[in-house]
Amino acid sequence: MTVLIDLLYVGNCSNLPVARQRLHEAVARSGVEATVREREITNARDAEIHGMRGSPTILVDGRDAAAGEAAASMSCRLYRTETGVDGAPTLEQLVEALGS
Fold first, then answer.
1. How do the domains of the chain map onto residue ranges?
2. Cis peptide before 56 (omega within 30 of 0)
3. Which end of the chain is more exposed for a tag (fewer CB within 10 A), N or C?
4. 3-state class of 7 per DSSP?
5. On the CB side of 82, how many CA atoms lie within 13 Å of its CA?
6. Tell me: the pLDDT tens digits for 13-62?
7. Is 9 helix (H, G, I), strand (E, B) or coil?
8. Closest residue by Cα to residue 76 from 24, 14, 6
9. Which class is domain 3-99?
């Protein structure tokens, strides 16, 4: 079974490159078969429709990889990690999301 992953972001998101890199590494480590779709979100309506809770947001089969409960947003997103806040989910968070 293939996992569908959506990487949602706003244009010029400074955290997109690290989120993309960690996501691809997490897919490789987890061994799951995945399709990754990247989607630039350009307005608040699309953020709500697609479930973006700040940029970047990673959805695994429609679920937020960081288990966020925040409202839809076009803002930069911060992720809680074991070492503080980061602009993208950690590799470990993503591997865990792919395994659940």
1. 3-99
2. yes
3. N
4. strand
5. 4
6. 999 999 999 999 999 999 999 999 999 999 999 999 999 999 999 999 99
7. strand
8. 14
9. alpha beta
